[in-house]
C-alpha cells in the first residue's frame, strides 16, 4: 500500500457548485520528493472571493489554468506510476480535500484510483495521543503556506513523525 498526502485549495465549500483551484500530493516516504501539483480552471460561474483568496490566485488567473479532465488524467497516471499496491489517500482535512478529489475523479474520469475511502491525519494523531482535543500541526517541518504541495509535504512530515516516534503502524512502500 502506498500513502499519498493530499491538500486542496478551492474557491468554495463544495465541488460541482464551486471549483477546485489547485491541489498537491506527496508520496509518503522518507524523502518526500515525489510530488504532484495540479491547477484547474473553474467549472462553475460561482466562487467566493474569500475562499479563492486563500489560494493566492485571482479569478482571472484561475481561468487560465488547465482543463480539469486533463489534470485528473495526469494525476491518475501519476498515482498509478508511484503506487506500490493500493494507493491510500490521507489529508489534514479529508472531509474537505477528499470530497473535491473524489468528485473530480468521478466526474471527469468515471473512477477514483483511491477507491472509496480516505484517512484524516488529525484523527490519527488524536487516536495516538488518546485525546480528542490535541492537534498535530506542531509536527510539521515545512511551513504551511496554502501552496498545496507545501501543505501536503508538511502533513506528510507529521505522518512520518507519528510512524517513527509515536508507534503508528503503517507500512511505507
Automatic annotation (TrEMBL):
SUPFAM superfamilies: Ribonuclease H-like. It comes from the Bacteria. GO terms for biological process: DNA metabolic process. Pfam families: RNase_T. Residues 6-158 form the Exonuclease domain. GO terms for molecular function: exonuclease activity; nucleic acid binding. This is Exonuclease domain-containing protein. It comes from Aeoliella mucimassa.
Amino acid at each position: 500500500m502506498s500513502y499519498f498526502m493530499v491538500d486542496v485549495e478551492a474557491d468554495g465549500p463544495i465541488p460541482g457548485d464551486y471549483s477546485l483551484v489547485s491541489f498537491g500530493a506527496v508520496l509518503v516516504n522518507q524523502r518526500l520528493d515525489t510530488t504532484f501539483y495540479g491547477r484547474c480552471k473553474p467549472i462553475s460561474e460561482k466562487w467566493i472571493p474569500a475562499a479563492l483568496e486563500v489560494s493566492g490566485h485571482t479569478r482571472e488567473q484561475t481561468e487560465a489554468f488547465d482543463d480539469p479532465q486533463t489534470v485528473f488524467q495526469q494525476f491518475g497516471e501519476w498515482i498509478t506510476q508511484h503506487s506500490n499496491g493500493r494507493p491510500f489517500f490521507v489529508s489534514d482535512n479529508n472531509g474537505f480535500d477528499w470530497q473535491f478529489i473524489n468528485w473530480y475523479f468521478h466526474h471527469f474520469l468515471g473512477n477514483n484510483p483511491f477507491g472509496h475511502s480516505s484517512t484524516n491525519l488529525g484523527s490519527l494523531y488524536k487516536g495516538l495521543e488518546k485525546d480528542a482535543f490535541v492537534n498535530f500541526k506542531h509536527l510539521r517541518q515545512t511551513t504551511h503556506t496554502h501552496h498545496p504541495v507545501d501543505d501536503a509535504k508538511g502533513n506528510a512530515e507529521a505522518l512520518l513523525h507519528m510512524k517513527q516516534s509515536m508507534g503508528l503502524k503503517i507500512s511505507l512502500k
